[in-house]
Structures are given as C-alpha cells and as structure tokens.
Amino acid sequence: GEDVEQSLFLSVREGDSSVINCTYTDSSSTYLYWYKQEPGAGLQLLTYIFSNMDMKQDQRLTVLLNKKDKHLSLRIADTQTGDSAIYFCAEGGSQGNLIFGKGTKLSVKP
Amino acid sequence: KAGVTQTPRYLIKTRGQQVTLSCSPISGHRSVSWYQQTPGQGLQFLFEYFSETQRNKGNFPGRFSGRQFSNSRSEMNVSTLELGDSALYLCASSPGTSGVLQYNEQFFGPGTRLTVL
C-alpha cells in the first residue's frame, strides 16, 4: 500500500546543516512534497520536486530524490532556531489526497 | 488573499456526543480535504469534497461524514464521539486537481483541536 516513512527526531546546532530523510512506496507519484508545521499552526508547503528531477534547490533548501531507492531528503543549510518545527514528507496518493509521513521534529540548539 | 479558516479552534466534548467542524477554503478553491492528526497515527486522510460532491474517501468509519456547500465551505461531522477521536482536525483547500500525476499543493488551515472526555 501507500506509505511514507521518516525518522521522528533530529537535533542540530544553529548554523549547521540539517538533513531530513524520507522513504516512500508509491513509485507512480509524480510529485513529492515537504511541508513544515510550527506549533499551533497548520501545515505550510516548503517545497516540492517533480519525479523526473534528481535535485531541486530553493535558497537554503535542497531536495534530493533517488527514485530508484524511493528516497527523498530535505537539506536545510545554515539552520536557524526559527527552523525548529515538524517537517513532513508527502507523496500524492491514488485518491487525490496526500500521503504524509509521521513527521520529523527538528530541534535547533543555539 | 485570506487563508484557510477553521472554526472553532478548540472544542471539548464528551463520549457519545456529536460535533461539527467548519472550514472556509481560500477564495476560488473548489477542493476541500480533511485530515486527522494524532501523535500515534500522524496525518490521516478523511475525505475530499469537490464541487459539493465527495470525490475521495479515506479509511474512517461512517461516524465521520462531511459536506460541502455551493460556496465551497465545508463541514465535517463526527457522531457518537469516542476517546480515540481526540485529535487535531486539519482542513486543506486546493484549486481542485486530483490524482498522483497532478501537482496538488494543498493549503492548510490552523486546525481544530478536538478533545473528547
């Protein structure tokens, strides 16, 4: 079935790079997404990647896609305390919905 | 452009009661999706409405239902509440594309935090 897996926690120091990893099962997904959720808020789309791309860069964000291994990663350069949040990987589901991972809680220490 | 709004933001109910949550999508968006977020199960898809019709449905019991009005506003209803229904209920709106081949950016509201006692 459709499933998305990601590690639950990541802790980094301010100024370091953060790498959040995700694996997914549905190889037919054309788009893969990264969402961010701050405390008390809904989800906000950070970036997405089209499945025929290997990499996409958007300012401090770099998305890497290994379609063969069904592995997606999000790298945040120069991580700041304001980046502390929960990050969700998502793929397009067959029902027109999004299939989300359980989220990776990123803690940034000053 | 105003974002997705959800009311109420917080709700406390007791077992056996029913509850109705409301979502107003971004102006011009025709699709509204509902998700349940819990610490254990993460984000799970409830259903999607498009042009007043339920277009897709997740694996939730019939106690969970919804509807969409002609102005695209949507409500979801949970009857005979159980303790396990305590969750953050998120509504997301999108222009209306569907399927794995389509770019499907969903804009989320802040959610309604439902606590069942």
Number of helices of chain B: 0
Number of E strands of chain A: 11
Average of per-residue pLDDT values of chain A: 91
How would you sum up the major sheet of chain B? 7 strands, mixed
Largest sheet composition of chain A: 6 strands, mixed
Oligomer: heterodimer
**What is the 3D form of chain B?**
globular
Tally of DSSP helical segments of chain A? 0
State the end-to-end CA separation of chain B: 37 Å
Helix content of chain A: under 10%
Give the CA-CA distance, first to last residue of chain A.
41 Å
> Strand content of the residues of chain B, in percent?
over 45%
Q: Number of DSSP strands of chain B? A: 11
By helix and strand content of chain A, what is the structural category?
A: mainly beta
| Portion of residues within helices of chain B | under 10%
Q: Biggest interface in this structure?
A: A-B, 28 and 29 residues
What is the string of helix and strand elements of chain A? EEEEEEEEEEE
The parts of chain A where pLDDT drops under 50 for at least 5 residues are none
Report the portion of residues of chain A in β strands.
over 45%
Which SSEs are present, and which pair or pack?
The complex is a heterodimer of chains A (110) and B (117).
Chain A: E1 4-6, E2 9-13, E3 18-24, E4 31-37, E5 43-50, E6 55-58, E7 61-66, E8 71-76, E9 85-92, E10 98-100, E11 104-109
Parallel strand pairs in A: 2-11
Antiparallel strand pairs in A: 1-3, 3-8, 4-5, 4-9, 6-7, 7-8, 9-10, 9-11
Chain B: E1 5-7, E2 10-13, E3 19-24, E4 31-38, E5 42-50, E6 53-57, E7 64-68, E8 74-78, E9 87-94, E10 107-108, E11 112-116
Parallel strand pairs in B: 2-11
Antiparallel strand pairs in B: 1-3, 3-8, 4-5, 4-9, 5-6, 7-8, 9-10, 9-11
Structural notes for this entry:
The complex is a heterodimer of chains A (110) and B (117). Chain A has 110 residues and is mainly beta. Chain A is 0% helix and 57% strand. Chain A has strands spanning 4-6, 9-13, 18-24, 31-37, 43-50, 55-58, 61-66, 71-76, 85-92, 98-100, 104-109. Chain A is globular, with a radius of gyration of 13 Å. In chain B, the strands form two sheets. In chain B, strands 2, 4, 5, 6, 9, 10 and 11 form a seven-stranded mixed sheet that branches. Chain B is globular. The model of chain B has no long low-confidence stretch (mean pLDDT 91). Chain A binds chain B through residues 26, 28-31, 33, 35, 40-45, 48, 88, 91-103, and chain B through 4, 33, 35, 41-43, 45, 48, 55-58, 90, 92, 97-111.
